[in-house]
Design brief:
The complex is a heterodimer of chains A (about 450) and B (about 400). Chain A has helices at about 65-80, 110-120, 130-140, 165-175, 190-200, 215-225, 330-335, 340-365, 365-385, 385-395, 415-425; strands spanning about 10-15, 20, 25-35, 45-55, 85-90, 95-100, 105, 150-155, 180-185, 205-210, 230-240, 245-255, 255-260, 265, 270-280, 280-290, 300-310, 315-330, 395-400, 405-410. Chain A is an alpha+beta fold and about 450 residues long. Chain A folds into 3 domains: about 10-35 and about 230-335, Immunoglobulin-like, CATH 2.60.40.3670; about 45-225, von Willebrand factor, type A domain (Rossmann fold, 3-Layer(aba) Sandwich); about 340-425, Four Helix Bundle (Hemerythrin (Met), subunit A) (Up-down Bundle). In chain A, helix 1 packs antiparallel against helix 2 (about 110-120). The longest helix of chain A has 24 residues, at about 340-365. Chain A is globular, with a radius of gyration of 23 Å. By secondary structure, chain B is α+β, with helices and mostly antiparallel strands. Chain B is built from 9 helices and 16 strands. Chain B has a 6-stranded antiparallel sheet with strand order 3-8-9-10-11-14, covered by helices on one side. In chain B, strands 6-7-16-15-12-13 form a 6-stranded antiparallel sheet. Chain B has a two-stranded antiparallel ribbon with strand order 1-2. In chain B, helix 1 packs antiparallel against helix 2 (about 170-185). The longest helix of chain B is centred in the middle third of the chain and has 21 residues, at about 145-165. The chains are: A alpha+beta (about 450), B alpha+beta (about 400).
Chain lengths: ~450, ~400
């Protein structure tokens, strides 16, 4: 087979490049859109899939959870594209192969799907929870599939209690860049921060499935999303000039994900930030660079943002690039104008922080902080038109005035509502396009 | 006075049949180096037009980084420190003797988005003419210097060709600017957002015996700077809110341009330009003087025609020096914008004083290659002196 054609990537930069004399901080939103059109459902990029299902004892309380997990896993198996190697892993305080029974991936076809579903039907609950074991097994299973787009699903219902947080952290670090992992929590006994940590490290999504009946649809959607990926291991490469520092790099849409600590230096002035696999989709990144201040009339390239694909032999191919500029001016009308995209995503990132800090304060009994933070979140969500988040917030606080962020904490809050708000706090909305001039 | 009232057509007739006053010395074709007679309209070897000299556009030389002296650039920025690569556009001067100009980045902009182009036609014939074009890139568009350079070159090419074919300056000016509009609008195809694609203003002047024809779109200007105590005046009316108020006589210039949006231009060349034809106007000077075409980087500081005339000093030190001193006034006043200043003598022949100054070129060093068209040899030969090797000895 010849080298598959890569999808088209386009990179746009939204910024106010004008800075007053003496200033050196440059902010820009880098929007990356991939056509993903090259990979059809039957051809194109190779994929590999592992499904990790929590089979700890708690999955039987209530028993609907275990049966929903079985149904969902079977729906996922049906959604795996013909020929894609896959495996199902049962997770407890150890990780165990469900299908196939030995540690390798088998290509999906009618026979293997039927056998896998029969094995899933026999799954029972019993044992503890040590998620690092599950991740390590998934990592071993993907060995030899490095040229494929490697995707895993992790389902759990409980706290990762049979190992230390360090064990989990080390396992996540080992798996970073090896595969992407979408995480789902079922019920309300799992810990949002744990799954967010895994999904953050492995560049996947995290969400709550409060009603087990919805799990099958969710699994199917995740598999379809993974099968739609056309290019694996795409990185955001940032060049910035001598004397500059990258203050932060965050994915800000569709969700907030801080990539600042994930830099891999690729040259004296350049570094890569992982973005995982791409299908037909669009993501936004907020890049903040500090450069040496210039004089009025000076112009500088503050950063060159490139999307690069790393192929099997480690060669980088540039998929698209955009320029982040700095121009110093004494025209205050130019330099004081905040770019609409930058302002919007600065607000969305603050929204996510305010929700997480507010819920944390509420848990710790610090109701003043909780009220202030969640009030600010209500204000930001309303102002930016983030209606989903507004709805979720309204289940945790009584909103008196969204414009000023005046709220009262609800005395009784459904655990699932609180966890839904927490897991979805990082979901952002995009600024209305059409008025994007930087 | 309108074009119709002017007697005859100043550049009509085939120049090859005209008998120039210069002696029949041979000289080298500026294009191919073949020996040609000054009376030849076109080079027998390569077909180059021998009766036209024109300014060259800014070069593309790569200069070292102004900040770190680095020499490697990507996307127009230094690979090491990120500074914008220095451009030959930042400051360029051209001197054709009877027309000369300076285009300068100024002190507050990172790029020079202005452009200029000019030519002299039919030197030594009965019908000499000079053609001047100044364009100012619209800063709110992307790559405005592409628009200004393309518009200047396209307009100059068109005007030179039309005038050499004996077509009248007013109609040629209008057609030339419309051709430039099409060329600049064509650039928009290369840009994602049409509305942001390169745009510019334009001001043109065709200086002939008995007539100066000006054309414009936007807020670049042409002035008549009268010599010998004549009345200097602005020949164009800006396509701005303020310009309309001034043209209507409602307010004076100083008052009109105080309003916050006074400088917003109403017309430009580029995508989505209003479809009206370009402004064209001509007048018959009463005596000698200078024609000044400039961008707003100059006239924002000195807008009064009489003040400009006294600063230009009738071009006694040559037009290159006069353009440079006008540019210096704008720079010393703050240099907020790009500054382009082009001066042409009226009548379009070397005045007695300048001719005297030009008689010295045999004592001057040869021009820089960047300004190859300064062509002191041409000036020398038009005065009947053949440049010699010993003439350029220090």
């Amino acid at each position: 087979m010849s080298t598959p054609t890569l999808p088209q990537f386009s990179v746009s930069v939204y910024q106010n490049e004008f800075l007053p004399e003496g200033a050196g901080e440059v902010n820009a939103i880098v929007t990356v859109t991939s056509s993903g059109a090259v990979a059809g459902p039957s051809s194109g990029a190779r994929a590999a899939q592992v499904i990790m299902v929590d089979c700890s004892g708690s999955m039987d309380y209530p028993s609907a959870k275990m049966s929903a997990a079985r149904q969902a896993t079977k729906a996922a198996i049906d959604a795996i594209r013909e020929g894609v190697p896959f495996a199902v892993v049962a997770g407890t305080h150890v990780a165990r192969m469900v299908f196939p029974t030995t540690e390798y991936l088998v290509p999906a076809d009618a026979g293997t799907r039927a056998a896998a579903k029969a094995a899933v039907d026999r799954l029972t609950a019993g044992g503890g929870t040590a998620i690092s074991q599950w991740l390590s097994l998934a990592d071993r299973l993907f060995t030899g599939h490095e040229n494929a787009i490697r995707h895993a699903i992790l389902l759990t219902d409980g706290k990762d209690e049979h190992e230390s947080p360090d064990d989990l952290g080390m396992a996540i670090a080992r798996c970073e860049g090896r595969f992407t992992c979408d995480c789902r929590g079922i019920g309300t006994d799992w810990v949002v921060a744990e799954l967010r940590r895994i999904a953050g490290g492995l560049l996947g999504s995290v969400d709550i499935v409060a009603d087990p009946a919805n799990l099958a649809d969710d699994f199917r959607a995740m598999i379809e999303g993974a099968m739609g990926k056309a290019v694996a291991d795409v990185r955001l490469r940032l060049w910035s000039p001598q004397g500059s520092t990258i203050k932060f790099v965050k994915q800000v849409a569709p969700t907030v994900l801080d990539l600042s600590g994930r830099r891999l230096q690729t040259g004296p002035l350049a570094g890569d930030y992982p973005t995982g696999a791409w299908g037909a989709e669009s993501r936004d990144y907020h890049v903040c660079v500090t450069v040496r201040p210039g004089s009025v009339g000076d112009e500088m390239l503050a950063a060159r943002a490139s999307l690069v694909s790393i192929d099997g032999s480690g060669q980088a191919q540039v998929l698209g690039q955009g320029l982040v500029r700095a121009v110093w001016t004494d025209d205050a009308a130019l330099s004081t104008k905040m770019n609409r995209q930058v302002a919007h995503y600065t607000g969305q990132a603050e929204l996510a922080d305010a929700i997480q800090a507010g819920l944390e304060a509420r848990k710790n009994g610090d109701y003043d902080t909780a009220t202030a933070k969640l009030g600010r979140a209500v204000q930001l969500a309303a102002a930016s038109g983030n209606d989903d988040t507004t709805r979720l917030l309204a289940k945790v606080v009584d909103v008196e005035d969204p414009a000023t962020g005046t709220v009262r904490l609800k005395a009784r809050v459904n655990d699932a509502d609180e966890m839904a708000l927490d897991t979805r706090s990082s979901k952002t909305v995009r600024v209305g396009k059409g008025n994007n001039q930087g | 006075m309108t074009a119709a009232e002017l007697p005859g057509n100043p550049v009509s007739g085939n120049p090859r049949t005209q008998e120039p006053p210069a002696p029949p010395d041979t000289r080298a074709c500026s294009s191919c180096g073949a020996q040609v007679l000054p009376s030849d309209g076109y080079c027998e070897e390569c077909g180059a037009d021998l009766l036209v000299r024109r300014s060259t556009p800014p070069g593309s030389a790569t200069l070292p980084c102004s900040d770190c002296s680095g020499t490697a650039f990507t996307d127009g920025y230094c690979d090491h420190c990120g500074r914008l690569a220095p451009s030959p556009r930042d400051h360029w001067e051209r001197d054709l003797g009877i027309v000369a100009g300076v285009s300068d980045r100024g002190l507050r902009h990172s790029r020079n988005e202005d452009s200029m182009a000019f030519a002299v036609i039919g030197e030594g014939t009965e019908y000499p003419a000079s053609v001047v074009v100044v364009c100012d890139g619209v800063s709110s568009s992307v790559d405005p210097q592409r628009a200004s350079q393309l518009a200047a070159n396209t307009t100059l090419d068109y005007l030179v060709r039309a005038l050499r074919h004996g077509e009248p300056a007013p109609a040629s000016t209008s057609a030339a600017i419309e051709t430039a509009q099409q060329a600049v609008a064509g650039l928009a195809e290369e840009y994602r957002d049409r509305a942001d694609a390169p745009s510019c203003t334009i001001a043109t002047a065709v200086v002939e015996r008995g007539r100066v024809t000006v054309g414009w779109v936007g807020d670049s200007r042409v002035y008549w700077l009268a010599a010998n105590g004549g009345t200097s005046r602005r020949l164009t009316d800006d396509d701005t809110w303020a310009g309309q108020l001034i043209a209507g006589g409602a307010v004076n210039e100083a008052e009109a341009y105080k309003a916050p949006h006074a400088h917003a231009i109403l017309r430009w060349l580029g995508p989505e330009a209003p479809p009206e034809p370009p402004h064209v106007r001509d007048f018959a000077p009463e005596g000698p003087g200078l024609v000044l075409a400039c961008s707003d980087g100059l006239w924002n500081y000195v807008w009064d025609a009489a003040d400009l005339a006294s600063l230009a000093g009738e071009g006694w030190d040559g037009l290159a020096a006069a353009s440079a001193s006008l540019t210096a006034v704008a720079l010393n006043s703050g240099g907020q914008d790009n500054i382009t200043t082009v001066l042409a003598y009226y009548p379009p022949t070397a005045p007695p004083a300048a001719a005297a100054a030009a008689a010295a070129p045999t004592l001057q060093l040869p021009p820089l290659t960047e300004t190859a068209e300064i062509a002191s040899t041409d000036i020398a030969s038009s005065n009947g002196t053949v440049p010699s090797d010993e003439g350029i000895e220090p």
